[in-house]
Amino acid sequence: MNAGSRSGPPQGATATLKLLFDITREFSSTLELPAVLGKVLSLTVQSLGASQGSLFMLDGRGEVVRYFLARQHLPAEERKRVVSVVMEKGLAGWVFRHRKGAIVEDTRTDDRWHIFDNDEKPVRSVLAAPLTRRGMMTGLVTLEHQQPGAFNRLDLQLLTAIAHQAAIAIENAHLFTQVSDERDTVASILNTVNDAILVSDGREHRLAMLNPAAATLLDLRPDDAVGKPLGDLLPDSPLLKLLDQAAEEQAQDAVIELAGGGHHHVRVHDIPRVGRVTVLHDITHFTELDALKSEFVAAVSHDLKNPLGTILGYAWMLDDEAGLTELQRRYVTSILQSVQRMQKLVGNLLDLAKIEAGVDADREPCSVQTIIANVVNQFAARAGEREIKLEVAVPDELPAIVANELRITQAIGNLVSNAIKYTPEGGRVVIPAKHTAESIIVGVIDSGPGISSVDQSRLFQKFSRVGGQEMAEIAGTGLGLAIVRSVVESHNGRVWVESQLGKGSAFFIQLPLDAALANETSESGPS
Length: 527
What we know:
By secondary structure, the protein is an alpha+beta fold. It has four domains: 13-183, GAF domain (Beta-Lactamase), CATH 3.30.450.40; 193-282, PAS domain (Beta-Lactamase), CATH 3.30.450.20; 286-357, Helix Hairpins, CATH 1.10.287; 364-524, 2-Layer Sandwich (Heat Shock Protein 90). The protein contains 17 helices and 17 strands. Strands 2-1-5-4-3 form a five-stranded antiparallel sheet, sandwiched between helices. Strands 7-6-10-9-8 form a five-stranded antiparallel sheet, with helices on both faces. Strands 12-14-15-17-16 form a five-stranded mixed sheet. A hairpin with a 2-residue loop joins strand 4 and strand 5.
């Protein structure tokens, strides 16, 4: 890169400091890497009165990855050859190997300078300095002049100072370019994803970013929506509740129905220094298929009730008959057990169908203490047979809930039944309860084998059985936890599990309080 005639560095310390300040300011005026490199070289050539100069950027192995060459008129392939030669035989290579600057007063007498044939403007003096940052050499700069003895020690000191500032500017530009490229890559990926993705931050969930799929799904214009609270953009949306919960518990997922129709599985992650990332996956088609399947299963289950009852009745009559051989009696017992298992399965399927259809929608004030006590009485004998201790940790002042008592009893009972089944003999099952201003939380904690994180993701699905072969031998229909989830969700609550392999499992049900009942209980207090 060419400059003009030799003007020399500024005279005096004050002038030098001012020059360095001006150069640093110029370096900071842009963060685009090619522009920074060009500005570094042009300002350096100009400040030291050189005729022209070259700038090489190096990687960690000393390979030249970018360069501005004084001989810009050469073809591209020839420029690459020149760079390779000067790094191997020339002053640039000497500076890289010795990690320090150099002055060549006369190229004709200094073998550190490689002379190329047919140079249009023969170089007679050269100044060079490394660009170092954080103890690493990231590049080097060389300045050339047609006159011998054009540079001195003061010039080298100034060039070294400029090179230090240039290395900082280049690093900043490189980081900016890297971040910009990564941002563009992420944006390209998000723009091609079919799932709707939102990024929000702050207590008001201000929208920071959304992809085209989210803009289409939620009918938002990105230019108008970004920066505004989601509560203003999507009033009364169930998304807001999930975002609030994610702020407290790091992650939330649920299936919601949006105002425009269609069911979506929503996953919300609270990511530090980023915000809350919300992903909405359209499962409308699968929801419709699930509804058809449920209708089919309910119809078949209903039609099976009468035949199973008939089989069971005749099997009981056979069991009461005298004169049966031992083998015949074992056959009858096997029939009775099989039919009873089928009846339990059919009963669970019909319960699910009723819950999902909203048949059991009646609600009335219920005492959680009473429900837990009834469940404990129901399973005390079964726990006693296996020497499992049932412990209750329920405060006296729990407020009442408005719920279907039969279904809530069934849900808690299913959790306790599972806990007893999977807890080894001599273990313990704890049933704690507590309340907040908005809800009551009931837990069932066992000392069983625990559940892997992979199995936890499908734990509440219908017919889901988790664990290895030893777990498969434990009797069950795979519908108990699906019923728990359906009951809880029909009461606008939620259910979740916390578990680690070898450390037991803790299931929790959270049910909303009726505000009037909660206030009434709080005002009256315990007697």
